[in-house]
Structure formats: C-alpha cells, structure tokens
C-alpha cells in the first residue's frame, strides 16, 4: 500500500470511514487465497459486554496479539527493569555510605532521590497496540519490571557491597552504579532497533498485520475522532476536565507509595544489619508482582476499574495504619507485606483507564498519559521530605500522609466512575448507534 493510501504520521487510513471502522465493532480478517493475502471486512459475532468490548475470535487477530506479546512487551519489560534497578541502586547506596562519601547533609539525600526520570512513552506505545480489555494485563506485566527490579535490587546490592567494596579504591555503591549503568546503556541501544512508533510503521509486521493492528484499536475506541495535530491534541487534553481528575488520582496514588524510595530504611527499623535488611526487601516485591498481574487480568477480563482500585486502596490504608500505631517488629513486617503487595497493581489499572477514556485521538491520548505520568512523578519532588531521618523509626508523618493521599485517590476514582456512568447514559440516549462505551 503506497503512501497515498494512508498517513502513518497521523496513524490513520483515509478509507477508515468508508470501511465503517469508526464507532463499530468491526475488525479486519487476514484471508489467504493461493498465497495472496488480503483484508476483508467481517462482522465479529463475539459476545459484547455492557461497554461494547468484544472477545477475540478472529485467528488472525489472536496470532497478531501473540506476536505483539513476544516482541513489544519483552523489550519494554527489560527497559523498565533496568530503569528501576538503577533507581533502587540510589536507594540501596544509602546503606553503603553514599551520603557520607558525598558529604550529603540534612535533606540533601531526599532532594537527590526526588530527581528521577519518568516513562510515559512506553505506556502510550502499549495503548496503540492493545485494546481496553487487553491493556491492563499488559501494563501489569510491564510494571512487574519495576517490582522484580525492586525485589532483586537489594540482593544485587548486597552482593556488590560485600564483594567489591574497596576494590580498586572504589566504594561498593560506585561499583553498583558502574555495573548496572553499563547494562542499562546496552539495553537502550537494543531498544532503538526493536520498538516501533506506530502500528502502521512497525517493521516486523507485514502489511496485513499492520492494518489489522491499527484498525482493531480504532474499532475499540469510544467516541473516536480523526487524528489531528499535536497542538490540537494538547488543547483537547487540557480542556477535558477528566484529564485533571486522572492526574489527581494518579498523583495522589504515587504519593501514597513513596515508601518505595525508603523501604530499605523502613526495614532497617526492624533492627537487622545491612545484608539482612536488603534481603528482606525481596519477598514483598515478588508477591506484589504476582498480585499486580492477577489484579490487572481480572480488571481487563471483567472490564472493571473502580472496585479493583477501591478494594486495594482500602487494604493499603490498613497496612499504613499498622506502622503508624506500633513499633512492634512482627506487626510492622506484616504491614510491609500488606501495603507493598497491593500498591503496584493499581498503577497499571489507573494508566490503562486513562488511555482508554481519553483516547479519542492518538494525540490527546499521548498528552493525557504524559500529563498523568509527569504529574504523578512530581510526587517524588515533595514526598522524600516526609521521610526525614529524624522521624526514624516511627515515621508517623509519612504514614499519615500516605493514608491521606490514598483517601483522596479513592475519591477521585469514584468521581470518575459517576462521570462515566452519566456519559454512557447520555450516549445511549442521544447516539443509539454507539456500540463502544466508557469503562469504569
């Protein structure tokens, strides 16, 4: 298909409207006749849920999704794994005299860990290839890179500190930065060749697969509009009040999990040495990774967001209350398992919800995800100051703030649910031809 048949820069094909893609539950089926592959429009007979989402029955589509899972997802996972391995290197280095070696005083270390990078591009890329029923699970798998890295970062740091501290005159934390940083650079170079910009520009898909990848997302988008300019997408996102509710929701949730930057310090309040402390940070994150996948799978399977977030946030609040009211070692260790296990599955549900709710155009979706991610990560600017070393071992201020942030996040979730319920009712009354609705 030549360039006149589509506009890859905008991610749309001019004949989409003609083929009846917008606002329908049509997809394209790859059919083979004498080795000639063509696209033929078919009506999907799969059962639709109340939001118009369908299950996959087309063999070509099933094969495509498996191919995406084997290519995009592993690369993004590895990148995010090293992203958080490097972040945790900074956290663990505090136990190996980082602050003393660098002459950090007062809240300077807190300022240091507040200067972090964020990763909205990966989330936007996933939203271009996966439907609303698929994306939460894929985001969960993606986010396990965070949790697996956080889990093993302590073990890796313990080994490096024990074996390389002082070698060639370098402190253990410096060796940790050198080793992990080298791997991260290698992964970044590899990703340059493997990650696509858009379904229609994916080199490792054939033409049939590229068209199918593009059109199935178009058919899954509520109130889909034609692609527009970046500036128009920016204005659309900024003008939609739901963008700001999602930003508030995500920011307060990320603020409530600020313990992640101080978990080794929190575990150390249990009275263990450095090696044991780093080892004990591993099990909660492994459990959190498994829970995140389960939560996101059920959220996507049943197209449900509100209750998944609400129930998990309620459990997390209970976990925060325990260390706020007691310094008992056993109770605090149980609390760590509780709030770590249920915290991280929420990230993918919230961002997946954002992408499918504000995805009327690719540009609006990209801006909305970037805004939520950026404002969410702004929490790293102020939350480190909730954990001053002078509050050790109780950290009462931090736990109370985390409880408050969680409560605000839950309120934002229910505001969004009520808004989308009203919007769906209005669509059914004023646009009866609509088949795809907002999920909540």
UniProtKB/TrEMBL annotation:
One of its GO terms (cellular component) is membrane. It comes from the Eukaryota. Residues 1-28 are annotated as: Disordered. Gene3D superfamilies: MFS general substrate transporter like domains. Its main location: membrane. It is a multi-pass membrane protein. This is Putative mfs transporter. It is found in: Membrane. Keywords: Membrane, Transmembrane, Transmembrane helix, Transport. The keyword Transmembrane helix applies. InterPro entries: MFS (IPR011701), MFS_trans_sf (IPR036259). One of its GO terms (molecular function) is transmembrane transporter activity. The keyword Transmembrane helix applies. The chain crosses the membrane at residues 72-91, 111-130, 142-163, 175-195, 244-263, 275-295, 307-325, 331-354, 366-387, 399-420. Signal peptide: none annotated.
């Amino acid at each position: 298909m030549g360039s006149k048949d589509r506009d890859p820069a905008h991610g749309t094909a001019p004949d989409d409207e003609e083929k009846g893609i917008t606002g329908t539950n049509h997809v394209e089926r790859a059919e083979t006749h004498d080795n000639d592959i063509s696209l033929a429009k078919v009506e999907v007979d799969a059962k639709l849920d109340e939001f118009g989402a369908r299950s996959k029955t087309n063999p070509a589509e099933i094969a495509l999704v498996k191919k995406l899972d084997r290519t995009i997802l592993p690369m993004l996972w590895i990148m995010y794994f090293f992203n958080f391995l490097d972040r945790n290197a900074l956290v663990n280095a505090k136990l190996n005299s980082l602050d003393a070696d660098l002459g950090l005083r007062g809240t300077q270390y807190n300022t240091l860990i507040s200067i972090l990078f964020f990763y909205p591009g990966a989330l936007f890329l996933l939203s271009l290839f996966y439907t609303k029923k698929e994306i939460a699970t894929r985001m969960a798998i993606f986010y396990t890179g965070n949790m697996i890295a956080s889990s093993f970062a302590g073990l890796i740091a313990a080994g490096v500190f024990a074996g390389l501290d002082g070698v060639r005159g370098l402190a253990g934390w410096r060796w940790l930065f050198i080793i992990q940083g080298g791997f991260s650079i290698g992964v970044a170079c590899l990703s340059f060749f493997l990650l696509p910009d858009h379904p229609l520009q994916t080199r490792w898909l054939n033409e049939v697969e590229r068209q199918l990848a593009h059109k199935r997302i178009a058919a899954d988008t509520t109130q889909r509009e034609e692609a527009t300019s970046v500036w128009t997408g920016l204005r659309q996102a900024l003008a939609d009040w739901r963008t700001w509710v999602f930003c508030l929701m995500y920011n307060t949730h990320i603020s409530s999990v600020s313990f992640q930057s101080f978990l080794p310090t929190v575990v150390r309040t249990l009275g263990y040495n450095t090696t044991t402390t780093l080892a004990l940070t591993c099990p909660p994150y492994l459990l959190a990774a498994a829970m995140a996948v389960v939560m996101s799978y059920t959220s996507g399977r049943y197209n449900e967001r509100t209750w998944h977030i609400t129930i998990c946030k309620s459990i997390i609040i209970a976990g925060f209350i325990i260390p706020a009211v007691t310094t008992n070692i056993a109770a605090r260790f149980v609390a760590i398992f509780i709030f770590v296990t249920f915290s991280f599955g929420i990230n993918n549900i919230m961002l997946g919800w954002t992408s499918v709710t504000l995805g009327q155009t690719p540009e609006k979706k990209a801006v909305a995800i970037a805004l939520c991610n950026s404002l969410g990560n702004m929490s790293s600017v102020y939350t480190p100051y909730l954990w001053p070393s002078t509050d050790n071992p109780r950290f009462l201020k931090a736990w109370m703030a985390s409880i408050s942030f969680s409560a605000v996040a839950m309120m934002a979730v229910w505001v969004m649910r009520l808004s989308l319920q009203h919007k769906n009712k209005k669509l059914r009354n004023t646009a009866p031809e609509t088949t795809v609705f907002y999920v909540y």
